[in-house]
Design brief:
328 residues, alpha/beta, TIM Barrel, eight-stranded parallel β-sheet, 11 helices, 10 strands, globular, binds NADP nicotinamide-adenine-dinucleotide phosphate
């Protein structure tokens, strides 16, 4: 495993880290503590030093499982969590310093930690990025010792660019993958100038880029891949990177053919992301321990050749860019 610095936090984070949204055994399935524990342990055994969770993932069970497993280990692991998605209805007016303070305190309770290593605003409405008092609250929480660092998880590049104007924003979590390439155009350079840690989420386009799905694949009733393909429940783009499933499958087949030297598309998709120096770490989600294991191993794949980079770029330009590029 190699490590990169997470921007201004100074944390040394594993290039391949872990996303903990589905560690209970999969989206829309009952949360199993044993599954979560074995996924987390598998990842840490292989050198993962950074885990991303959120207060809303299985109502706090993910946060609790991550903190419980990490406490049993001797190696230092940084836990990033998120707040804000319990605001209901999810509108800017619901984002108040009081409400956010309460969410942070709940996360401290769920994790039984004294200080949260990194708290991220969890894809708030765009207007929230224009409210300095929200960002100011986290300075108070820092002084009180409740958090070490503030980050944001964003939907759009414009939100990322606005967020990093606040000096206390240390990290940006953003979707970046073979089907979602826009952050590399402008945002990455700006992030590097300001020493912002870049955390890449949804690196496998919700599993689509693993290459294992077919037109016949079905998902659990409560799995967002069933009900959020068009963004009706949360943002368009959080599921399958915003790409229409059938078009995604076509692009996946082309990628497989265009990268004949690569055994696994999942590993290739992760290694492709690591070609970008602005990226601090990737947080692939895993619903089983063997997925976490294979994802970590992707860091050892050979770098992409210029010819491989070009074919991935060409497939994106031809099939994906015309339909989604400007959305975020
Ligand atoms: N708004 C936000 O801030 C936000 C939103 C989304 C995600 N996140 C964070 O980002 C993390 C990653 O995003 P994500 O989980 O949505 O998407 P992802 O990492 O692109 O996809 C994860 C899914 O891909 C499949 N998979 C993973 N590894 C695999 C492998 N080696 N081989 C084959 N299939 C594999 C699994 O699907 P199956 O279960 O079908 O096997 C898994 O559930 C999350 O866990 C979460 O921590 C944050």
């Amino acid at each position: 495993m190699k490590y990169r610095t997470l921007g201004k936090t100074g944390y040394q984070v594993s290039e391949i880290s872990l996303g903990a949204w589905q560690i209970g055994g999969g989206w829309g399935k009952p949360f199993r503590d044993e599954t979560a524990e074995s996924i987390i342990n598998q990842a840490i055994d292989l050198g993962v030093t950074f885990i991303d969770t959120a207060d809303v993932y299985d109502g706090g069970k993910s946060e609790a499982a991550v903190a419980r497993a990490v406490k049993k280990r001797k190696v230092p692991i940084k836990i990033a969590t998120k707040c804000g998605r319990f605001v209901n209805p999810h509108v800017s007016a619901g984002y108040t310093p009081q409400a956010l303070r309460k969410f942070v305190e709940n996360s401290l309770q769920n994790t039984k930690l004294e200080t949260l290593d990194l708290i991220q605003l969890h894809c708030p409405p765009t207007e929230v990025y224009y409210r300095p008092e929200i960002f100011g609250l986290f300075e108070d929480l820092k002084k009180e010792g409740k958090i070490a660092h503030l980050g944001v998880s964003v939907e759009k590049v414009e939100e990322a660019l606005k967020a990093i104007e606040y000096p206390n924003v240390t990290t940006v979590q953003i979707i970046f993958n073979m089907f979602r390439q826009r952050p590399a155009q402008l945002f990455f350079a700006e992030a590097q100038k300001k020493n912002i840690g870049v955390i890449v989420r949804v690196p496998l386009a919700s599993g689509l880029l693993s290459g294992k799905y077919t037109p016949e694949t079905t998902f659990a009733a409560q799995d967002h891949r069933n009900f959020n393909r068009d963004g009706s429940s949360f943002d368009k783009g959080e599921t399958f990177g915003g790409v229409n499933y059938e078009l995604g499958l076509q692009a996946v087949e082309e990628l497989k053919k265009a990268l004949p030297g690569r055994e696994s598309l999942a590993a290739a998709a992760l290694r492709w992301i690591l070609m970008f120096d602005a990226v601090s770490c990737i947080i692939p989600g895993a619903s089983r321990p063997d997925q976490a294991q294979r994802n970590v191993q992707a860091a050892d794949e050979p770098p992409f050749t210029p010819a491989e980079m070009k074919v991935v770029g060409d497939i994106y330009e031809r099939l994906i860019k015309p339909v989604v590029h400007q959305l975020w």
